Amino acid sequence: MSAQKIPGNNQVDALRARLALGGGGIGGPGATGATGPMGATGATGVGATGATGAGVTGATGAGATGPIGATGAVGATGAVGASGSPGGATGPTGATGATGPANVIGTVIPIAPGTTMTLAQTSAQTLVIDTTGARSNITMPAAPVNLDVVRVASTGAANTAGQAFTANAGQTIGDPQNPGTFSGVGGTVVYFTPGAGLAWFWQAASTRWVEFQ
User: Fold this and answer.
1) 51-55 — which CB contacts under 8 Å span 24+ positions?
2) pTM of the model
3) 8 A C-beta contact, residue 154 and residue 135
């Protein structure tokens, strides 16, 4: 009996397949299966960013500084501004005061003790009376002008007899022994103070000799 060749694995598989198919011949190739779905997109690559270029900055140019320009001409002087307005208007001039006696000393008349006399009209006169003896009697001017002045300067350490002054017709005279009072019309006043200095001025409006010291 001849020995039988044992088939290889591929042949065994083929025989088994034929027996399973009932001994028929091998069928033709099956139909191609449907295409499978597309696979997921692969991850993006993570390669490192390239280094920045290190080119050297160029050197600054060495041009020389230009010369300083010439000073410009001085501008013309501006016009003078207009003058400011003047201050406030001057106020009105006040009224002129009454004119005083031009010279309160005036004519100087020495009077000896016991003299009797009537004074002449003048703007100012001064009687220098010696009071050491008898009383002198002096009558005021008959026609005085407003603000005429009669002054008295007494000399001597005593005035025992007193010195009398009489107002002329239509006049009164201030009493130096009682300041602020007046004689009657044409009346007389007497002063006894040694060394006294006194004066009267004529007040035409009131026709009287007003005493002042």
Assistant:
1) none
2) 0.53
3) no
Distance CA 14, CA 20 (A): 10
Torsions phi, psi of 152, nearest 5? -130, 130
| Rounded Cα–Cα distance for residues 143 and 54 (Å) | 132
Q: Are 166 and 129 in contact (CB under 8 A)?
A: no
Q: Which amino acid is at 41?
A: T
Nearest to 171 by CA among 119, 129, 114: 119
Contact 196, 152 (CB under 8 A): yes
Could you give the CA distance from residue 99 to residue 147 in angstroms, rounded to a whole number?
9
Question: 3-state class of 155 per DSSP?
Answer: strand
Chain centroid, CA 34 distance in Å: 109
- Which is nearest to 106 in space by CA: 120, 125, 121? 125
Distance CA 58, CA 90 (A): 83
- Tell how far CA 162 is from the center of its chain: 67
Q: Residue 188 in contact with residue 164, Cβ under 8 Å? A: yes
In this predicted structure, what is the pLDDT of residue 23? 45
pLDDT score at 125: 98
Q: What percent of the chain has pLDDT over 90?
A: 51
Residue type, 27: G
Would strands 137-139 and 172-173 be described as parallel, antiparallel, or unpaired? unpaired
Q: How far is CA 204 from the centre of its chain?
A: 54
